[in-house]
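Q: I'm writing up a methods section and want to include an example of the input and output format. Could you take the sequence below and give the corresponding predicted structure tokens, formatted cleanly so I can copy it straight into the document?
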Amino acid sequence: MNIEVTPENINAFLHFGWLPRTDLSPPIPEIWIPDSPSNHSYEPREGGTLLRNAILESCANHKELVVPLSGGLDSRVIAAVLREHNIDFLAVTLGTPGTYDYDLGASTAKALGIPHNAIDVTKLILDTDNLVSTAQRINDWTNIIEVQYNLHINNTYPDAKIVSGFLGDFLGGSYTGIDHSSWNHAVTDFIKLSKISSCLPSTRIDIETQLLLDLKTPQEKNLTYYEELTMRTRHTCSLRPTVFPDDYNYILPFLNQQWVEYMLGASRELRIRSRHYRDILHTNWPKAFALPAKNFNGGTIKDSIRKRKYHAQKNRVRSKLHRTFPDVATTFMGIDPHQNYTDFRKQIIHNRGFRNIIQRNVLDLSERNIVSDINITDLYKKCFDHKTRPNYIEANTLLNLTNLEINLKATI
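A: Here is the clean output for your methods example:
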């Protein structure tokens, strides 16, 4: 692995859960990004035709297709288009039962009559040596455990092409509403919002200065500063190696030049809060998008603003209860709605094999004595040596420390 083990890189990983790098090219070619709004009519039917063509062209001439179907919008539109054109494919949901991605993905497949397979990650057996080997292959410091889960789909269906919704939310405008007056302001907010766990102290290095120096102020494009920063860091250094490692048999229908130019050429008013993207989805595939989605906190794309606010407030209360009384909240209210497809706290508590991997690697990291700002021993004792169970914040911290150790084993 061609990454230096330095205090700066270690602290950056502890902050983000992945390593910002400047030697990687962004997934979207700069030439595809318009300098200003384009002159398309931006009617939902026009957008639907472009998106439909992008998905069909990318999937043409492939005999076996697998669509990882989550609780979000991007994988759902892929499934809806393939279903619409009677193209055979298998939908696969991956995660922990009870999470939005796992449950909504499964219910969507059933409602649309799509062949479906659910993979419960709590039943998968992980091994530290295999995790280290995976880290060496992908050559990136990232969430190696999530990488291994995603590779499980590829390994289960080795002859299939995995049709990924990567970049769908970004192109749709998920980050457009976060606007800033300057590049410096965007970087400050990005660093603040990207901190992986409040258990971890602020890093001693000035990550903001590092990003400002290494990622020069971008040329004027029809993107907000925050969108530019997100694409060049999170999507390039974290999501891309995690969702589809280099040896993954994947298809990226959203990374279609016409679709990229169309969506990134839309005005700020159309892209903010994914306004035009949502109109495209609901207008062209109403049945698929009348179903609940995690993007709307379990509501639907047609919900009124008042109803969306209700769902959002309800989930904020649920999440707060989960942080304070995790066991009681899980018993009576289900898994924290802001958990992604996997509930790692549940894994640590109920999966002995997973817990052993966490314990072994956290102790190995502690023995290195290179993470001086965190008392790993105290955290370990609090979570494993007593009858108390880790809360969600502590569980995510343990996961991040474990991923750091696995990445270090792959590097040193």
